[in-house]
Each structure stands twice: as C-alpha cells, then as structure tokens.
C-alpha cells in the first residue's frame, strides 16, 4: 500500500458507502483526512470517531457550501468528489425538482469543488471523481437523469486535466458498476437484473472501489489523467 503520510486528503461525501471506505483507506495509509456529509450526521460522527478524520457538514446541492468546504481545507494533495445521488424512473413522470437537485449534486458540485481545489492544490495533486459505468452505458431503462450526470463528469475531468496538467495535477473519473451500499444493496430488488448483465455476477465492495481510488492518487499513477477508469465487473460488455 502506498504511504500517504503527510498528505492532505478531502473526500466530498464520506459519511457512508464508497466515500466512507475511501476515508478509512486513506487514514489507514497515513493521510490527514477531512470529509463532507449532509444528511447523515450520526454516520459521519461514527466515521470521524473511528478514523480520526474531520467531518464537515456541507450540502453538495449548495454551491457556496461546496466551495467553502474545499477552500477551508487549504492546500490539498488529494480531492475525491464522491457525493452523489441516484433517482431512477420514467423520465415522463420523474419530479423535475428532483432531477434538478441530482444535477446540482452530481454535476455542478463536482465542477465547483474541482475548480476550487485547483486554487490551492499542491503540484502533483490528484482529483478523483466517482462517476458510474452509466456514464458510458445504460443497460436498463429509467436512468436518463443519472446517466447524464455521470457522462457530464467525464467532460469535467478531461477539461480540468488540461487546465491543471502543467502543475502535475491529474484528474480522473472512477466508474463503478453495482457496489453494495445503501444506494444499491447487494440484496436489493434489482440485484439479479444487474448481475445478469455482468461478466462477474456480484456487486463490488466499497473497499474494491476505494483501492482503485488510492492507486490513482499514488505517485505510480502520475501519467494517468483525463481518463475514466471503470470498475464494474463487466456491465454490458
Ligand atoms: P450512498 O448513498 O451509500 O452514500 C452517498 C454518500 O454521498 C453519503 O456519504 C452521503 O452523505 C453523500 N451525499 C449524498 N448527497 C449529498 C449532499 N447533498 N451533500 C453532501 N454529501 C452527500 O452511495 P454510494 O456510496 O453507493 O455512492 C457514492 C458515489 O458512487 C455516488 O456518486 C454514486 O453515484 C456512485 N456510484 C455508486 C454505485 C453503487 O452501485 N452504489 C454505482 C456507481 C456509482 P449524507 O448521507 O451525509 O448526505
């Protein structure tokens, strides 16, 4: 495991699921970690107590809160933008306000957090965005809003990779398929349908996704930038 001792890491959305696994792995690797949360203060407090990481309440739907949370973190070595929501269903009947909120959290917050990180980030820093295989493929109906948001972050990553590349900063998207979290439980009603489209017929663990994030944040990944790294067990290949 890479040693992240002395590195300043911020995880947007670290109270549960994939984000909490990322917080735990960076702390275990020696990093100083801050993470944001919004709706789950008890879960955030538990992760903070367990790991010693600093929890910061900041709603990713609120642009000013996102920018302030990243600015307050100071000179980061690694920013992981993980906070995200999923709403699925017939686009003809989905609540437009819920779609707008999804775009605020999954797209606008990613843009503003990434840009803000670039103001103070150290040379050779890392920005990782948690996207989804649905940024590339939509094997099931009812995913239009979610898919648009996860395609959009690919463009953010490619743009920021160009903008910050001269400083050695890399920007990449990690695209999971089904991962066993509150958002998509391995025992949930859609699990069998998802596994049918996969080469490896199970949900990933949050730790499997976190391990890829730590690799991309390591010095070994210095020449990987502007990419999407898919970790999905072969959804729809
Ligand atoms: P969970 O719902 O289990 O956890 C979501 C995390 O994001 C929580 O820590 C939550 O914090 C935080 N979050 C959500 N909304 C906000 C907000 N408005 N402001 C701040 N934080 C917020 O989801 P996962 O761990 O499964 O998902 C994490 C990321 O991975 C998302 O971007 C998701 O789209 C992506 N992904 C997940 C897949 C899966 O199968 N699970 C597959 C592909 C991609 P809090 O509760 O405190 O608000």
TrEMBL record:
Belongs to the short-chain dehydrogenases/reductases (SDR) family. Pfam families: adh_short_C2. NCBIfam families: PRK12742.1. GO terms for biological process: fatty acid biosynthetic process. CDD domains: SDR_c. This is Oxidoreductase. The keyword Transport does not apply. The keyword Oxidoreductase applies. PANTHER family: 3-OXOACYL-[ACYL-CARRIER-PROTEIN] REDUCTASE (PTHR42760:SF133), SHORT-CHAIN DEHYDROGENASES/REDUCTASES FAMILY MEMBER (PTHR42760). InterPro entries: NAD(P)-bd_dom_sf, SDR_fam. GO terms for molecular function: oxidoreductase activity, acting on the CH-OH group of donors, NAD or NADP as acceptor; quinone binding. It comes from Sandarakinorhabdus cyanobacteriorum. The lineage of its organism: Bacteria, Pseudomonadati, Pseudomonadota, Alphaproteobacteria, Sphingomonadales. Keywords: Oxidoreductase.
């Amino acid at each position: 495991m890479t040693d992240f001792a002395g590195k300043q890491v911020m995880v947007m959305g670290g109270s549960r699921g994939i984000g909490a696994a990322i917080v735990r792995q960076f702390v275990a690797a020696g990093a100083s970690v801050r993470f944001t949360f919004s709706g789950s203060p008890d879960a955030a407090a538990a992760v903070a107590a367990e790991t010693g990481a600093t929890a910061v309440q900041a709603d990713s739907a609120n642009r000013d809160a996102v920018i302030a949370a990243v600015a307050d973190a100071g000179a980061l070595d690694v920013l992981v933008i993980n906070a995200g929501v999923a709403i699925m269903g017939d686009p003809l009947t989905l609540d437009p306000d819920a779609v707008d909120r999804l775009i605020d959290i999954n797209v606008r917050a990613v843009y503003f957090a990434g840009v803000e990180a670039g103001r103070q980030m150290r040379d050779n820093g890392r920005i990782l965005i948690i996207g989804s295989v649905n940024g590339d493929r939509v094997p099931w109906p009812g995913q239009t809003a979610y898919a648009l948001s996860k395609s959009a972050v690919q463009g953010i990553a490619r743009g920021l990779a160009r903008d910050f590349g001269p400083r050695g900063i890399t920007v990449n998207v990690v695209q999971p398929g089904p991962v066993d979290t509150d958002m998509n439980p391995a025992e949930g009603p859609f699990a069998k349908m998802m596994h049918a489209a996969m080469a490896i017929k199970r949900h990933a663990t949050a730790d499997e996704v976190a391990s890829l994030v730590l690799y991309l944040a390591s010095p070994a990944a210095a020449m990987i930038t502007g990419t999407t790294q898919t970790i999905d067990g072969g959804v729809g290949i």
